[in-house]
């Protein structure tokens, strides 16, 4: 029995070592020379993003491929940002497998049994955030900006006792909110979806009259969507006003990379006055829908993939094509306005990316092979703003 236990431990140890090694090999983050509080994103060996700053008090750790707390030094100066002691109430007894006892602080979860472990301090550092009246938010002090109200990740609530957004929101309060929202109302152009996701700008995209102006070489990049699995639910909405010029095909939104088309893509064929919707799933392969659009006017565009079909809409024109399976992944992030030299000329506004199916944008009026989308088929398709 003891030999079997040792064999299992060796297998688990080997598996964890392999996972960590693969993470290191796939890390696209690199340190900024001379400043350990910043990092860059490298998608290829010669292409890097701008510099991003780690959260206050943390430093970039190349070995872990993330921003981490620096080693503790009892002789170091006191932090300059406000902190507060953690609540001293008893730990939460979270249900699971019938075990309602608090976890042993000396052992890792899953290792709650007698056995020797090196001494580890159980004293937690000060809490750097504070609760808000609305548990969907919390307050955080950011050097140079003061105390900032920030939103928890979608689907989570702030837990004051644990000092973080770790509680799952009740299903009744989950609705399909945009993860990215670009309203182009500010300079520089930023995400207003509530989570302040970094947006890269190659310097040729401007905010003009509360809309994004693209001149054929302008490009915005959402690095967060590099190599991401969108699964079977995605909604993208935007409006655009195109101008003469540019290539025969122009990208509005795409996760294309090099000469490969995006697994998720909205593009224009300006000569034919068509919007092109593309999707590529693991199970069905690539699919494409083309819809006409009117010249010299703002056009409203909606892209929906719900695991059963790609659904497309331009103003009052809509169409769907049957598909299934997960959307394929691409190494590139979301590129807005240009991808593999297909540069867009015109304006884009009110761009929203939902990693869910928002029933406010439901498509399906019986045209093509599909019946209208029925939100009752999904447990999480709950409408929202």
Automatic annotation (TrEMBL):
| Domain of life according to the entry | Eukaryota
* Residue ranges of the region described as Disordered: 76-107
- Give the SUPFAM superfamilies listed for this entry: Concanavalin A-like lectins/glucanases
User: Where does the signal sequence lie?
Assistant: 1-21
Q: Which InterPro entries match?
A: ConA-like_dom_sf (IPR013320)
Give UniProt keywords alphabetically: Signal
Q: Which Gene3D superfamilies match?
A: 2.60.120.200
Q: Please give the name of this protein.
A: Uncharacterized protein
Species of the source: Mytilus edulis
The major lineage groups are:
Eukaryota, Metazoa, Spiralia, Lophotrochozoa, Mollusca
